[in-house]
Structure formats: structure tokens, C-alpha cells
Specification:
- The chain is of the alpha+beta class.
- It folds into three domains: 2-191; 229-308, Helix Hairpins (Orthogonal Bundle); 333-501, Heat Shock Protein 90.
- 70% of the residues lie in helices and 10% in strands.
- It is built from twelve helices and eight strands.
- The strands form two sheets. Strands 6-7-5-4-2-8 form a six-stranded mixed β-sheet, covered by helices on one side. It has a two-stranded antiparallel sheet with strand order 1-3.
- A hairpin with a 2-residue loop joins strand 4 (398-407) and strand 5 (410-416).
- The structure holds adenosine-5'-triphosphate and magnesium ion.
- Residues 321, 385, 389-390, 393, 417, 419-422, 430, 435-437, 440, 447-453, 476 line the site of adenosine-5'-triphosphate (ATP).
- The site of magnesium ion has 5 residues, from helix 9.
């Protein structure tokens, strides 16, 4: 835009300069004409003076009357001033100046050699003077002067013609060039206007439209960013503002979705926890009522008390899970690490869970000496949840295979069952807090959906990873990896220890 404006300014300045040249040229032409007129008029006056000199002289000599000499005297007195004026007017051209000088020289010679001496001679010998005048010498001399005047006047006219035509030609050229400059300036202004309309006004109008759509709630509204300079900067700023607004709205929507989800999860939790609390509480209340109302023999009482105890343990475990979760959410997983032999921990868990089911057979295969630096209770919690899930979600019984393999710097623990498996659609949510599969709920399998979420937090706090492979009706294989305590060759890599636990329990 600056360049275009500068070009328009240059064209306009050129236009004015050329018009000035044209005006000056025409003024020169008229000055030249006036100057020529003055020079010619001056020459004519001087010629008249020369004639007055001759006619005054002739009148005086023929009449011998002093008063007849007046024209001669007047012309003689005026001649020097008039001659100077002619020389001044001819001074701007050397040739004309030369011609004027020749006129001067011939008049001076006429006066000096003929006219002035003849006036003096008239007082001494009038008859001889009359004879000289009649001889026509003066007229002849004057004719020669008049020829010089003709040359001067012709020269002045020619000079005026040449100057005139040169000035007029310059003026014409200046007018033509001025016209071209004017056309150029108009063209540039038209082009600049078109350019401004297309590259400035239109993008701004489009940006205003887009801003209107944005205000109406269409946050996907954007503008083309290819505008020039400041327009482009405006378009980019608009787009980044719109993108930021869109991001903000998406974040709000996501937050909203999470809030709704957490609302849903909370109500699910309330119903799930109440259900989980109600079942053991009902047993506790039922058996304690029974013991209070009836006089039971010691064996029955003991059995009932053991049931009450088991149900109370279930309640305590559930509350522990809830408290754990709350603690983890507030402060993260707190670990009390110690070096421990994973195969021993697995063995203890297998013994513990073997007692829980008659229909399941728990198998343990473990490499020996897989030492990890871990929190014993937390790790037992993870293994316990995987094993209890494997038992819970294989209601028809079957083999639960537990394996620990050391390899390189890591150990992998796998828990495989032959149970109901996990439908693909639910697999994505399996580690989500409070998520429970449909089948478990349908079959009345207890749980709060916290076990795997806690397991993942604990494994990850140990620097490990947890995952699974499963298919509906095809059993599940859950696994987790942990770093070994001392990286390097583990002792007894391979099937060093294989035992069956809980067989037939
Ligand atoms: N081995 C498995 N086979 C089939 N489904 C499983 C298995 N393990 C977990 N699931 C599915 O994953 C869900 C979440 O498991 P998770 O251990 O977190 O909760 P839960 O067992 O339902 O309750 P909790 O462990 O808190 O008592 C379960 O409800 C179940 O649907
Ligand atoms: Mg569980």
C-alpha cells in the first residue's frame, strides 16, 4: 500500500512538474514574442530617427533657416539613448547584437563623417553645402543604414520564430507527458482502490462475518489466513482466538462430561457399597440373632461365630478398600519397600485363596529367587485381587494358573483362569474405579469394582505395568511386571519351582 501510494504521489508530482514546464514554455513563447516586438519597434524608432537626421539636415540646408534644424537636433539628441536601447534588446543573441553594432557604426559614421560636419560647413559656405546635399551623398549613406535595419528586423523575426516554435514544441511535449502522468495517476488510484477493496476491505468484512458467527455460538468459524501484512496478522489473531475459545468450550464440555460421569459413578458406588454392606450385615445380624434367641450347642455356636467373623472381615475389607482409595487419591500410594522373594509371597497368597473354593484348582509355577523391592502388603493386595477375581469370575470352577517368570531386569506375574472372560466392549473400562462387568452383577457376584483400580495404582507406584488378555467365554489372563531388585541374571531362570496348591480344595 505504501508503495502504491508512493507511486501515485510520484505520478502526481511528475504531472505537476510537466504542467509547470508547459506553462513556463508558453510563458517563454510570449516573452520571446514580446521581446521581438520591442526589438523591432526599437529598430523602427531608430530608423525614424536616422530619417529625421537626414530630412532635418536637408531642410536646414535648403531653407538656410536655423529653426528648420530642430528635427535634426532632436534626432541627434535622442539617438544615443535609442541606440543603447536597441543594443540592450539585441544583447541576448550574438548575431543580432552584431547587426545592431553595424547599425550603430554606420549611423555613427553618417553623423561623424557627413551630417555633423555638413551642419558646421553650412555656416561657412551654404552654397557648397547645398551642392553636397543635392549630390545625394546623405541619401545614399542612409540607404545603406536602412539595409542594415532590414537585416536586423528580419533576423529578429526569424529568431522570434525559432524561439517561439521551440517553446511551443516543449509546451506540447510537456502537455502530452502531463496527460500520460495524469492517466497513470488515475490508473494507479483505480488499481489501489481495487486492491484495497479486495485485499483489505473484503478480508475485514469476512472477519466481521466470522466474528458474528462466533458470537452466535459457531466456534468452528475461521477465516482465510492468507491476507497481507496487518490484515494477515488480524486474521491469524482471530483464528487463534477462535481456536482458543473452541478449546475452552471443549475443555468445559469434557469437564461437564467428567462431572456427569463422576455423578453416575458416585450413585453407582452408593448402590454398590450399600449392597455390599447389606449382604454381610444381614448375615451378621441373622446369625447373632440366632445365637441370642436359641440355646445352641458349642459346636454350632462356634460355626455361627466363625460365619459372623467372616462376614465382618468382608465388611472390614470393603471399608479398607474404600479408605485405601480415598488415601491414594489424596496422597498417592505410600509404599514401605523391602526386598522380598516374589515366589514366597505368591505361595502364601495361593495357600490363602486355595481355602476359599472347592471347585477351583490353583496352580503356581514360579522362578526361584525373583527378588523385588516392594511393599509386601500392597503387593499381596494386588496378587490377592487378581487371584480372587480369577476365582470369582469362574463360577463353574476350573484351574487358576499363577506364574512368575524373571527375565532380564523384570519379573512378570501372570494369573490365568478358565472363567467367563471379559466382553470386548467392557475391556476398556476394566481398570476404571467402581466399574463392574454386567455378567458379575447378573450372576450376583459380589464386588465394588475397586480391586483392579487399586491394583493398577499399586503396580505403577512400584514402577511396573499391569494388563490382561481376555475374550468373552474364553477365560482371562491378567499380568503385571515389576523391576527386579538387583538387575542381572536371576537365579534359576526357567521352571525351577512348580507346585500345585489347593488341589481339590
Ligand atoms: N478374571 C476375570 N474374569 C472376568 N472378569 C473379570 C476378571 N477380573 C475382573 N473382571 C471384571 O472386571 C471388573 C472389575 O474388577 P475389580 O477387581 O476391579 O472389581 P470387583 O472384582 O468387581 O470388585 P472388588 O475387587 O473391588 O471386590 C469386575 O467386576 C469384572 O467384571
Ligand atoms: Mg476384584
Amino acid at each position: 500500500m505504501s508503495l502504491a501510494a508512493a507511486a501515485v504521489a510520484v505520478a502526481l508530482v511528475t504531472l505537476f512538474a510537466l504542467l509547470l514546464v508547459a506553462i513556463l514554455s508558453y510563458r517563454d513563447a510570449s516573452t520571446t514574442a514580446r521581446h521581438a516586438q520591442q526589438a523591432i519597434a526599437s529598430a523602427n524608432q531608430l530608423e525614424t530617427l536616422a530619417l529625421d537626421l537626414e530630412t532635418g539636415l536637408r531642410g536646414f540646408i535648403i531653407t538656410n533657416n536655423e529653426s528648420s534644424l530642430k528635427p535634426w537636433n532632436d534626432a541627434h539628441a535622442a539617438y544615443p539613448g535609442q541606440m543603447r536601447e536597441l543594443l540592450r534588446l539585441a544583447s541576448d543573441n550574438p548575431r543580432q547584437e552584431q547587426r545592431a553594432l553595424k547599425i550603430k557604426r554606420s549611423i555613427d559614421a553618417y553623423l561623424r563623417d557627413f551630417s555633423v560636419p555638413l551642419v558646421a560647413f553650412m555656416h561657412r559656405n551654404p552654397a557648397l553645402a547645398r551642392q553636397v546635399v543635392r549630390g545625394g551623398t546623405g541619401l545614399h549613406r542612409l540607404d545603406a543604414v536602412r539595409v542594415r535595419f532590414d537585416q536586423f528586423i528580419t533576423g529578429e523575426r526569424k529568431l522570434a520564430d525559432v524561439r517561439n516554435s521551440r517553446a511551443r514544441r516543449t509546451g506540447r511535449i510537456a502537455i502530452v507527458l502531463g496527460g500520460v502522468s495524469l492517466a497513470l495517476a488515475v490508473l494507479l488510484i483505480v488499481l489501489l482502490t481495487a486492491y484495497l477493496a479486495r485485499r483489505v476491505a473484503r478480508p475485514i468484512r469476512l472477519a466481521a462475518d466470522a466474528a458474528g458467527r462466533l458470537a452466535d455460538g459457531d466456534l468452528s468459524s475461521r477465516v482465510d489466513e492468507r491476507g497481507v501484512a496487518e490484515v494477515g496478522a488480524l486474521q491469524r489473531a482471530f483464528n487463534s482466538m477462535a481456536a482458543s475459545l473452541e478449546r475452552g468450550r471443549r475443555a468445559l464440555e469434557e469437564q461437564n462430561r467428567k462431572l456427569r460421569e463422576s455423578e453416575r459413578v458416585k450413585s453407582e458406588l452408593v448402590s454398590s457399597v450399600s449392597h455390599e454392606l447389606r449382604t454381610p450385615l444381614a448375615s451378621i445380624l441373622g446369625f447373632s440373632d440366632l445365637m441370642l434367641q436359641r440355646d445352641l450347642d458349642p459346636a454350632d455356636r462356634r460355626r455361627y461365630l466363625e460365619l459372623v467373623r467372616t462376614e465382618a472381615d468382608r465388611l472390614a475389607a470393603l471399608l479398607n478398600d474404600l479408605l485405601d482409595l480415598q488415601r491414594i487419591e489424596e496422597t498417592g500410594v505410600q509404599l514401605t519397600r523391602e526386598e522380598l522373594d516374589l515366589s514366597k509371597l505368591l505361595e502364601a497368597q495361593v495357600v490363602l485363596y486355595s481355602a476359599q473354593s472347592d471347585r477351583h484348582s490353583l496352580e503356581l509355577e514360579s522362578d526361584e529367587g525373583c527378588l523385588v523391592r516392594a511393599d509386601r502388603d500392597r503387593l499381596a493386595q494386588v496378587i490377592g485381587n487378581l487371584v480372587s477375581n480369577a476365582i470369582k469370575y469362574s463360577p463353574d470352577g476350573g484351574v487358576v494358573h499363577i506364574e512368575a517368570r524373571c527375565s532380564g531386569s523384570r519379573v512378570r506375574v501372570t494369573v490365568r483362569d478358565e472363567g467367563m472372560g471379559i466382553p470386548t466392549a467392557q475391556q476398556r473400562q476394566i481398570f476404571t474405579k467402581f466399574f463392574r462387568g454386567d455378567a458379575g452383577r447378573r450372576l450376583g457376584i459380589g464386588g465394588t469394582g475397586l480391586g483392579l483400580a487399586l491394583a493398577r495404582d499399586i503396580v505403577e507406584a512400584h514402577g511396573g505395568r499391569i494388563g490382561f488378555e481376555s475374550g468373552e467365554g474364553q477365560g482371562s489372563t491378567f499380568w503385571f511386571d515389576l523391576p527386579l531388585a538387583a538387575a542381572g541374571e536371576p537365579r534359576g531362570v526357567g521352571l525351577s519351582d512348580s507346585r500345585r496348591s489347593g488341589g481339590g480344595s
